[in-house]
Specification:
416 residues; alpha/beta; Alpha-Beta Plaits; Maf protein; 6-stranded mixed sheet; 5-stranded mixed sheet; elongated; MoaB/Mog_dom; MoaB/Mog-like_dom_sf; CinA-like protein; Competence-induced_CinA
Length: 416
């Protein structure tokens, strides 16, 4: 649990901005699942800079995870830099070479001479198989180094090679290095409808009284993540404390997103969903359809941005639009009920609001939004919210409100 773990990402394209560096975040999440964490992350260009970065990181780390630089070109120097920094001879691994040769033979392609360097391995290190590419990974146990005892993992850069290799080869070795119990790790819980400060005031003091429990928060617009790190007993005590206060606000446990939770809930209950959106412009439907299997649930997504669309597509009475305005309880209810009738779905959610920066008034300032949910055989529900943030944040937070409203209706919970 107290291991100093660093990640070095290599690749000039990561610093030029032409390729998004997502490896550090992904590895950080995998480490947190084991109750471990990244102490430092460094990104360096290909070439000689890799040697200095690895030498410095190895000196101060218990574990170093390196991504990239295992290719066949002259600027792929990760193997060489690791061997040099640890004082280990670099040798050609015969089995690794045969695997690389077979990779090309199976594809009917000749192997270039440059690919031969991908079989180079620090003497005594373990070769990590790569069924998805030509670059095998490398694990250098801490006992091999001539200086500070540091375990080093060399992993390929392409995500389709890196992620499967990490999952297959890294976690069990880290668990052994850190003397982790098999059940030790992290429990992640997601909440919505509660601010970070209110959440903190409600449970933080109680959580800190649980022996051996480490907690962490991550707040984003419309959502709060809680990490419980420690033994299984400590995590379960923390979980019970939180659910005693905020069970209704808990979206999921284990990292599932709100949209995934909604799709699963409706699927389990055999319910069909329709959406009628104005100010969110289809964002709610987009989030739902990002979930595999959403086609079982979502029947219709109406983007009725103009008043005429609300009237002609959903049947919102013209009188409602003229007397109450598009952003009103009456129109939101009519949108939800219209979507329910037109689609034939079991549940329909509607949203209408003022995203800004213009269009507001003293009575209805920018950030005003009305959300309504209609369900067959039940009374239509509507409520008002005020989210006076920038347009992009407004849309995201409001989409969160809509999805959470569907979740609450499916679970027979009161709306926010």
């Amino acid at each position: 649990m107290g291991m100093h773990i660093e990640v070095v990402n290599t690749g000039t394209e990561l610093l030029l901005g032409t390729t998004l560096n997502s490896h550090g975040a992904w590895i950080g999440q995998r480490l947190m699942e084991q109750g471990l964490r990244v102490a430092r992350q460094t990104t360096v260009p290909d070439g000689e800079a890799v040697k200095q970065a690895l030498a410095e990181a190895i000196e101060r780390s218990d574990v170093l995870i390196v991504t990239g630089g295992l290719g066949p070109t002259s600027d792929d120097l990760t193997r060489e830099a690791t061997a040099e920094a640890m004082g280990i001879e670099l040798i050609e691994d015969e089995h690794a070479l045969r695997v690389i040769e077979r990779f090309f033979a199976n594809r009917g392609r000749p192997m270039a001479e440059g690919n031969r360097k991908q079989a180079l391995t620090p003497c005594g290190a373990e070769v990590l198989p790569n069924p998805n590419g030509t670059a095998p990974g490398v694990y250098v146990p801490p006992r091999l180094g001539k200086g500070s005892p540091c375990a080093v993992f060399l992993l390929p850069g392409p995500p389709n090679e890196l992620y499967p290799m990490y999952q297959a080869e890294v976690p069990h070795r880290l668990a052994a290095l850190a003397n982790l119990d098999a059940d030790s790790g992290m429990h992640e819980m997601k909440f919505t409808g509660i601010g970070e400060s209110d959440f903190h005031d409600g449970v933080d003091q109680k959580l800190h009284q649980v022996a051996g429990l480490e907690i962490g928060y991550c707040a984003r617009p419309g959502e709060l993540d809680l990490r419980l790190i420690g033994s299984p007993e400590a995590r379960e005590k923390g979980r019970a404390i939180v659910l005693a206060e905020y069970a209704d606000e808990c979206i999921s446990e284990g990292g599932t997103s709100l949209e995934e939770t909604v799709v699963q809930l409706l699927t389990d209950q055999g319910l069909k969903l329709a959406l009628a959106e104005s100010c969110t412009g289809g964002l709610v439907a987009s989030r739902v359809t990002d979930v595999p299997g959403a086609s079982v649930v979502l029947t219709h997504g109406f983007v009725t941005y103009a008043n005429e669309a609300k009237r002609d597509v959903l049947g919102v009475p013209q009188g409602f639009l003229e007397d109450y305005g598009a952003v009103s309880e009456e129109v939101a209810r009519a949108m939800a009920e219209g979507a329910l009738n037109v689609s034939g779905a079991d549940v329909a959610a509607a949203v209408t609001g003022i995203a800004g920066p213009g269009g507001g008034s003293e009575e209805k300032p920018v950030g005003t939004v009305w959300i309504s949910v209609a369900r067959k055989g039940s009374k239509t529900i509507a409520y008002k919210a005020f989210k006076p943030w920038g347009r992009d944040v407004f849309k995201m937070v409001v989409s969160q409100l809509v999805l959470d409203s569907v979740r609450r209706v499916a679970m027979n919970l009161p709306l926010a």
